[in-house]
Amino acid sequence: MIQEKKCFGNGLAKGYGCNKMTNVKNRKYGLCMNCYPDWILNSDNGKIKMQKAILKASAPRLQLTSLYDERKERNALKRMILSTKTIVHKYIRNRDKGKPCISCGDNWKDSFQAGHFYASGSFETLKFNFDNINGQCEKCNLYLNGNFENYSLNLPKRIGEERYNALVKLAEIDKQFVKVWTIDKLKEIQKEVKILNKSLQVTK
């Protein structure tokens, strides 16, 4: 047997309803299916209820969009870091072309790499520091872990004591900070390298 009651609003819908008999199963807030849409679209309480439902339904989508945007931003930053690394390392090889390996002193070869004095993976703030990167042979850079002992002996001669001491101080404070690269900062570095490359072309 179908239970019926008069369409008469209760709770948030109190005061609404057509007073017609309606199936109990089809009632919401005591309203029939004809009166409920009028209440939710035109009453203050109904509009609030509908807005909450919309927000609840859209929350997962908004969260997914936010996660997508964050991932997109992280990937863009990773690509920017890699492109900056390529540009900086190419500049270092051009800058040091003709100079011996910073560590072992071997004569310059086209296979020379851009070797870090303070490892870029451990000293994030010095990743793109020009004094921290110098032309180095493959053997020292790849197979002797940078040949650090000889590197430390030759670097002051290459860049001067003052700049060397400044680099050492920067390394000492590196661990006190977490370097967060930004696309704008990386663009500044790339712009600086372009200017330096032009100056190299003029002098050479």
Describe this structure as you would to a colleague.
With 204 residues, the protein is mainly alpha-helical. The chain is rod-shaped, with a radius of gyration of 34 Å. It has a two-stranded antiparallel sheet. Helix 1 crosses helix 2 (44-95). The mean pLDDT is 89. It has two domains: 4-42, no CATH class; 56-203, no CATH class. 55% of the residues lie in helices and 7% in strands. The protein starts with a strand and ends with a helix.
Key structural traits:
204 residues, mainly alpha, two-stranded antiparallel sheet, two-stranded antiparallel ribbon
Short description:
The chain has six helices and four strands, in the order E-E-H-H-E-E-H-H-H-H. The chain is mainly α and 204 residues long.
Question: Percent range for helical residues?
Answer: 55-70%
Uncertain segments of ≥5 residues (pLDDT<50)?
Answer: none
Rg calculated over all Cα atoms: 34 Å
| Overall morphology | rod-shaped
Trace the largest sheet across and list its strands: 1-2
Number of helices: 6
How would you state the average pLDDT, rounded?
Answer: 89
Tally of extended strands?
4
Measured between the Cα atoms of the first and last residue, the distance is 99 Å
- What is the makeup of the main sheet? 2 strands, antiparallel
* Fraction of residues in β-strands: 5-15%
